[in-house]
Amino acid sequence: MNRVKKKVLFVCMGNICRSPGGEAVFKKMIEKASLSAQYEIDSAGTIAAHAGEQADRRMQRHASQRGYLLDSISRKVQPEIDFQHFDYIIVMDDSNYDDLVRLARSDEEVQKISKITDYSQNYSYTSVPDPYYGGDEGFELVLDLLEDACWGLLEFIEGNSL
């Protein structure tokens, strides 16, 4: 049986910390749930400042310590392609949300956008803070928030059938 894949795009500003982290955490979760063949996961940024670069080395290090592989290459959101291709566009904060809503060309496209923290189960954060200018604790917090919210996202997409 040939099933249509569920397509999820994680978005932050530069696509070098939070969104590649979300991509890696979610990939690992769907792998553990034996759902990898049913999903396509990617990440992008609202700006192109880091396009073509790997994830921030600090983010890679902290993620690696938890068993996540951040191997994506940064790219800028391509609204004319991404809004059509992806089913879920998951942003890290209000600024990312506002940027994408401005780029959306229809209500249907806006409906695809949500904040990762909307799916949080154990944390009350309303956004995932950008760790770029902080220390190690910022990267650890990002991973804590992503692990919690990605599980909630997966349950939401799968209809709480996990």
Key words describing this protein structure:
162 residues; alpha/beta; Rossmann fold; 4-stranded parallel β-sheet; globular
Task: Estimate the helix proportion, in percent.
Answer: 40-55%
Discrete helix count: 6
As for the number of domains, it is 1
Give me the CATH superfamily: Response regulator
CATH fold descriptor: Rossmann fold
Q: In sequence order, what are the helices and strands, one letter per element?
A: EHEHHEHHEH
**Secondary structure category:** alpha/beta
The pLDDT mean sits at 95
Low-confidence stretches: none
The assigned CATH architecture is 3-Layer(aba) Sandwich
Provide the gyration radius in Å.
Answer: 15 Å
End-to-end separation: 21 Å
Give the SSE layout.
Blueprint: E1 6-12, H1 18-32, E2 39-45, H2 57-65, H3 79-85, E3 88-91, H4 94-103, H5 107-111, E4 113-115, H6 136-157
Parallel strand pairs: 1-2, 1-3, 3-4
